[in-house]
From TrEMBL:
HAMAP family: EPSP_synth
Lineage: Bacteria, Pseudomonadati, Pseudomonadota, Alphaproteobacteria, Caulobacterales
CDD domains named among the record's database cross-references: EPSP_synthase (cd01556)
Domain Enolpyruvate transferase: 12-427
Coiled coil spans: none
A molecular function GO annotation: 3-phosphoshikimate 1-carboxyvinyltransferase activity
Purpose of the protein: Catalyzes the transfer of the enolpyruvyl moiety of phosphoenolpyruvate (PEP) to the 5-hydroxyl of shikimate-3-phosphate (S3P) to produce enolpyruvyl shikimate-3-phosphate and inorganic phosphate.
Name the record gives this protein: 3-phosphoshikimate 1-carboxyvinyltransferase
Length: 439
């Protein structure tokens, strides 16, 4: 099937149905990487088969692990207790999580590796990870511009560090912890606010001991180097960041009711659900249970009269990828939704503050942009625009959801990038009654 150059969403009547979200992207990257660092056979089910994760699967194979697809979402990784020298360049595609975690893991081994990515990944800052890894003893050579891919890393002979992060970032924390596994001494990472803890949880599942101590508003994570990892089965639950899109559509399209089953409910990932509830969303969770070491549940959203809120900045880490879809739903709320303390959004797959502001304004929504945030004032949404996504999957999906409830159709460019995190997004939304088609 050829990928269309544009997709268009048209106003839909009520959406109804029960669907499953694709596997969690953060956990999928980690399952592959830890499986490759461990000794033995790690069977994974529910793996997200999106382009970002497939790039990580190819990478760990290049680092010497056995990687086999057993069926839909079912993968087997055979680890040999560490990474080996790869033959070629490790191309991480669009995936910031993939490249940063892989750099951390690779830094612990005596190998020399060149990392690269697509045009978007080549624009994203890498010193936030290479800086601490260099302090541990890894060596880096920038092959193009400083602070950007491509770069060559030479690992091995690491010493533990105490790292204090200025921003809560699970990618930085995870890179340091993965390097710390093969460093001499006790590695410590302190965060101003807790960021997603999938690496810590999964390291424990693979047999490592990880310490977590409260530290002001944040926490301090410690890990002693030299701990071996033992393969273990990993079950990946549904991604709350992907579930957000069909749920958002239900909230803003009159008469809708949509359930997304088996959504991961780790509290460090559910800031959006909390915010929507504060806005008046009818959002309920049923069938809470444990799966793959995480709490999961079936989340139902019904059309709701939303009211704007001020999102507490200290909630940012638990919903950093969800501000685009929050902004799209805020466009239908009465009053202003104020989102601040989210400067990190400017260094994601795109400058998400700038692109959401531009896209919403093109659709007739009142948006005020600030250096570290934006305010969206809701009302009837006109739509009627073609939105530039700069190849950012979440910018594309957020505007398509908006288009399902706007008066006039909304078109996005580069929709092929949606497959990085949510393959099957268009089919899933059509199955619920959404009108999304190639333009
Ligand atoms: C991720 C962490 C977040 C998030 C990204 C996934 C992870 O990035 O934006 O999509 O899996 O660790 P930061 O840690 O840089 O905030």
């Amino acid at each position: 099937m050829t990928t269309p150059s544009h997709l268009t969403a048209r106003r839909a009547s009520a959406l109804t149905g029960v669907v499953s979200a694709p596997g969690d992207k953060s956990m999928s990257h980690r399952a592959l990487i830890l499986g490759a660092m461990a000794t033995g056979v790690t069977d994974i089910d529910g793996l997200l088969e999106g382009d970002d994760v497939l790039a990580t699967a190819r990478a760990v194979e290049a680092f010497g692990a056995g990687v086999e697809r057993l069926g839909q979402g079912r993968w087997r990784v055979t680890g040999h207790g560490g990474f080996r020298q790869p033959a070629g360049v490790i191309d991480c595609g669009n995936a910031g999580t993939g490249v940063r975690l892989l750099m951390g893991a690779a830094a612990g081994y005596p190998i020399t590796v060149t990392f690269d990515g697509d045009a978007s990944l080549r624009k994203r800052p890498m010193k936030r990870v290479t800086g601490p890894l260099a302090r541990m003893g890894a060596r880096f050579e920038w092959l193009g511009e400083e602070d950007r891919l491509p770069l060559t890393l030479t690992g091995g002979g690491l010493s533990a560090i105490d790292h204090v992060q200025s921003v809560a970032s699970a990618q930085i924390k995870s890179a340091i912890l993965l390097a710390g596994l093969n460093a001499n001494g006790v590695t410590t990472v302190a965060e101003p606010e807790p960021s997603r803890d999938h690496t810590e949880r999964m390291l424990c599942a693979f047999g490592a001991e990880v310490g977590v101590l409260p530290d002001g508003a944040g926490w301090r994570v410690t890990l002693t180097g030299g701990q071996p990892l033992t393969a273990t089965p990993v079950s990946v639950p549904g991604d709350p960041s992907s579930a957000a899109f069909p749920l958002a559509a239900a909230l803003i399209i009159p008469g809708s009711q949509v359930t997304v089953e088996s959504v991961m409910l780790n509290p460090l990932r559910t800031g959006l659900f909390e915010t929507w509830r504060e806005m008046g969303a009818d959002l309920t969770v049923a069938n809470r249970r444990m799966a793959g070491g995480e709490e999961v549940g079936d989340v139902t959203a019904r059309h709701s009269a939303l009211t704007g809120v001020v999102v507490p900045p200290d909630r940012a880490a638990s919903m950093i990828d969800e501000y685009p879809i929050l902004a799209a739903t805020a466009a239908f709320a009465s009053g202003a939704t104020v989102m601040r303390g989210i400067g990190e959004m400017r260094v994601k797959e795109s400058d998400r503050i700038a692109l959401m502001a531009a896209g919403l304004q093109a659709c007739g929504v009142a948006v005020e942009e600030e250096p570290e945030g934006f305010t969206v004032t809701g009302g009837p949404v006109r739509g009627g625009a073609t939105v530039i996504t700069h190849g950012d999957h979440r910018i594309a999906m957020s505007h398509l959801i908006l288009g399902l409830a706007a008066a006039e159709q909304v078109t996005v460019d580069e929709p092929g990038m949606i497959a990085t995190s949510f393959p099957g997004f268009v089919e899933l939304m059509r199955g619920l009654g959404g009108d999304i088609a190639s333009a």
